[in-house]
């Protein structure tokens, strides 16, 4: 408990998190601070390239071994099991209809790039190493949850599976070829090809300014999260509790699962953060295509205004403490 409080205070006291809080408060008090949407997209692209490229370089140094295959197995397991558990909880405990249960479970089964980036910053502050292939695992975990959630909706709605075919191509494109997946995997492959020599030439751009750019990005994310607060009442008590408890449960299960593979502390931590995170970029786009009847006030508000702030401020040190405890 003492370690958690210490880590939480340390995490909250970092410039990145404090600027997120500033962005959140600025929206609440209706300040005119604004970051153009084009710049926000550029920042997101920067992080995906930086994470993927560095991951590829690290893999080029260590090579492909059994730990990479174990990581893939773990990623697929998390990507499939998390949305199933979320869907069943929402449907049978929360009494949420099938369509909204599927939409929400797709978000909580998929992952958040920004939460992952913040977790990396947390590890760097503690000088804890992690495997380069974790960037690839994040990309790998984005899509399975979306497909599983849509399939669950079809099954529990007593619809024929063939009804999925009408928008399957669009869903496939949105899930597998969205910008985050393409940039992460593409950058990882480039980093793998050029190796450490290639990293030297781009280090002043992709490594040195990383935390500074993350600070600006989290300021923007704080403002976006603050904008969703007005819809908080629409979410309701159960879904609000779910938005906090589901990440903690997912992280706890993942920590136990990861222990079976003897992953390092850094890798286990990143797996737990990925399992606990909720998508607000890839999943909303795919859900709009596959489940247009779902209510965005539920899944976007839960993901962006509740789970995301909880994870980056309190969840990250909590999951780290759980790993150390177990």
Overview of the structural elements:
This protein has 326 residues and is mainly α. The protein has 16 helices and no strands. The chain has helices spanning 2-12, 15-28, 37-62, 66-93, 98-109, 113-125, 134-140, 144-156, 168-176, 179-206, 210-227, 232-235, 237-259, 265-276, 282-290, 296-325. Helix 4 (66-93) runs parallel beside helix 7, helix 6 runs parallel beside helix 16 (296-325) and helix 13 (237-259) runs antiparallel to helix 14 (265-276). The protein is globular and about 55 Å long. The relative contact order is 0.19. Mean pLDDT is 85; it is low at 160-164.
Features:
326 residues; mainly alpha; Na+/H+ antiporter like fold; globular
- Tell me the major beta sheet: none
Poorly predicted regions are 160-164
Q: What share of the residues lie within helices?
A: over 70%
Count of individual helical segments:
16
By helix and strand content, what is the structural category? mainly alpha
What is the H-and-E element order?
HHHHHHHHHHHHHHHH
CATH topology: the name is Na+/H+ antiporter like fold
Q: Name the average pLDDT.
A: 85
CATH first level:
Mainly Alpha
Overall geometry comes to globular
